[in-house]
Amino acid sequence: MHITELHPGTEHELVLQAEDERTGYRGIVAIHNTRLGPACGGTRLWRYDSDAAALADALRLSRAMSYKAAAAGLPMGGGKSVIIADHTNPSREDLFRAHGRFVEHLGGRYITAEDVGTSYEDMAIVRRETRHVAGLRDPSPFTARGVFRALQAAARWRWGTDDLRNRTLALQGCGNVGAALARMLQDAGARLLVADVDEPRARNIARPGFDQVIPPQAIATLPADGFVPCALGGVLNAVSIPQLQCQIVVGAANNQLALPADADRLAARGILYGPDYIANAGGVIDGARYLFGWTEERNRTTIDAIYDTMLEIFANAERLGITPAAAADRLAESRLGGGA
Ligand code: NAI
Questions:
Q1: Using a 6 Å CB cutoff, which residues line ligand 1?
Q2: Contact partners, residue 330, CB within 8 Å, separation at least 6
Q3: pTM recorded for the entire structure
Q4: DSSP-derived secondary structure letter, 245
């Protein structure tokens, strides 16, 4: 395997590109910040338009991981890897074994897990080459639990109570996280409006006579107490925000804000936004459990503390006259030593 160091700027501690001639594997590991602990972050398998696009993705995602881990109070830093998929790819076994050797080369400075395009089953293959891999079980139920706690925090801040009984929540995306979250919200007494481009998924979740299945194009803008994006990024944008008819937005989807300025647009409309990377940190926390040998109980307590972090962010935002998104970044940056 041929490994080269890339020098894309000063923000990242180390960026390596690997090529394995025997299998045709090509990948990048970006380590953003290890001030708080080893750089952790998933492996994305994607068909990129160019190597530059793959590098940009690795840089952006590893930085986001530093922020997510720091804000969650975890003793770990931010990293990410991408596998550059193309039509010549070897078997999944060869691909992930090669990736495992690349991760092993970093000697524990970078710890990987699953991400878009990879599964925890793939991580079991990576593990044959390196022990520096977490994410050996489905993180979705843990992510869902964290989002549930974040929703409770937003409810407390906005309505003065954690109680979600009889609140109407519009859930966009009924996949792994959305479906698990829906069950928790139903148990808590919320009334759900649910939508998925794969409509049977939404129908599976909706309780007849109580919840309602909604066409995907309408879910974000229906009158509801809260909007819960659990599908795609970029759903909060200059077009959608003026049409929202809810008081809170909290969900699992990554990169919900199309642009940083969309946080200001939400605030100007008086809509409380619970920053995505605070709300959806449950899966990463579950990975930390594996790395640091935490008990299930400690895992649960740490995920449940997303509630306190979210309230702290809302309070800081109010005190400083900034958006919750900006307050979340400040919290993360203060833990990263301001150098991130
Ligand atoms: P998933 O792929 O299982 O579910 C996504 C669902 O959204 C699918 O059912 C899909 O059909 C639906 N969907 C796609 N476009 C849609 C649209 N325009 N309108 C309505 N529904 C649409 O993904 P998963 O794992 O549930 O993740 C959901 C989101 O949360 C993603 O943005 C993911 O990046 C993020 N996330 C997930 C974590 C996890 O532990 N799985 C951790 C942190 C973030």
A1: 139-140, 143, 172-178, 195-198, 201, 216, 230-232, 252-254, 280, 283
A2: 316, 320, 322
A3: 0.93
A4: B
